[in-house]
Each structure stands twice: as C-alpha cells, then as structure tokens.
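Just curious: can you write a single protein's sequence together with how it folds?
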Amino acid sequence: MSRSTIQLAAGLLLIPALLATSVAHAHQAGDIIVRAGAITVDPREDSGAIQHATLGSVAGSKATLDSDTQLGLNLMYMLSPQIGVELLAASPFSHSVGVKGMPGGFSGLNGKLGDIKHLPPTLSAVWYPVTSESVFQPYFGAGINYTWFFDESVSSEAKDKGFQGLSLDNSWGLALQAGADMMLTDKLMLNAQVRYIDISTTGHTKLGGEKVKVNVDVDPMVYMVGLGYKF
C-alpha cells in the first residue's frame, strides 16, 4: 500500500472524530437557526367539476395547477435542545391554472385559464428526537399554514373564449413536515425537508358575464434543500 493511500485512509478515519468534536452540541435552548435554499411547491390537486351559475355543473371538467420553485426561508427558535418553533417563508410562487374537460358548447377552453401567485407562511412546532450530541439531526413538525393568493390574471386564450377575471380564496390548513440537519460545523448545516400542506380554495371567474367557480383541494407536497446557520 502506498504512503499516499495510507495518509488518505488515515485522513478519512479522522473526519468523524473531528466532526464529533466540533459539533458536540448540535442545537441548544435559545439557538436561532436560519435556513435558505430552493423550495418547490408541487400541487397534488383534487378538483371538483366547474360550476356555471346558469348551466350548473360541467361533468368531467376540472382545474389544474403546475409546480414552481422559489427561494425558501426558515427561521427557527429552539425552546429546548429538542423542541423548536419554526416559521416557513418564501419568495412568491407562480402557477399556471389550467382547465380540462370543457365541452365545445361550454366555451371549449381546454388549456390555460390564467396565472396566479401565492405566499404560504407556515408556523410549526418542531421536535428533534435525537439527542443534542448527534451530528445528524432528523426532526418532525406540525403546524398551521395560511395561503394568500394574489396577482391573478386571465390568459389571452381564456379571454378569447369569453372568460373575464380570476380570483382564488385564501386558505387556512394543517401542515406536516419531516426534515434533517447535517452539521458541517458547530454553526453551519446542510438541511433537507419535505412537507404536506392542506390547501383548499375556490376559484372564481366569469364566462359571458355569468359567474363560474370551481372547488380545488391543492394539497401540495413541498420540498426544500439548502443551508442553515445557527446563531
């Protein structure tokens, strides 16, 4: 075995010991943890049929939403080595709202209805089950989400079909999450997290001056990967 190979092996064997020394206490009461990274909202929507004020329910029709990735931010305050309170924030998400299953006699729109933006601030209680001496810190959380929809607009295609205006009701719902911090130093960490957020809304528009609405359970999975720093 060459000298360089022996040195490399010795160096690799020293890494766990060095990490354990530098992060003997991963999180403590009073710590403030700030995380930032890429966050994706992936709707798993379950849409009801589109409802017309005069013609009633349009059988087989539904609304759709696409995914979007933005800058995600977490701010957490540790109440104890294993319990924290966390606020999730992000830059505004943008989604295209689509329509499917519309028959030709009912405008025939089967495509993009419009665009919307939303912000999903979420307040959660977080539990770290592993002792504070561990470099790897998995956690679980539950909390409340408020989703604010804004900047809704109708696509040119939908306008050509007679649609006018678009709005979505804001939503309150439960949020669940699982994640993990991997301590790189006593302050710096890698973070990965996944969430389920209960978002239910009603979309409103008009077709030929008549009110149109659709109920949608958006219920997205939310994924975030980034870096964190402990103060």
User: Anything to note?
Assistant: The chain has one domain: 24-230. The first helix runs from residue 3 to 22. Confidence is low (pLDDT under 50) at residues 12-23. The CA atoms of residues 19 and 192 lie 19 Å apart.
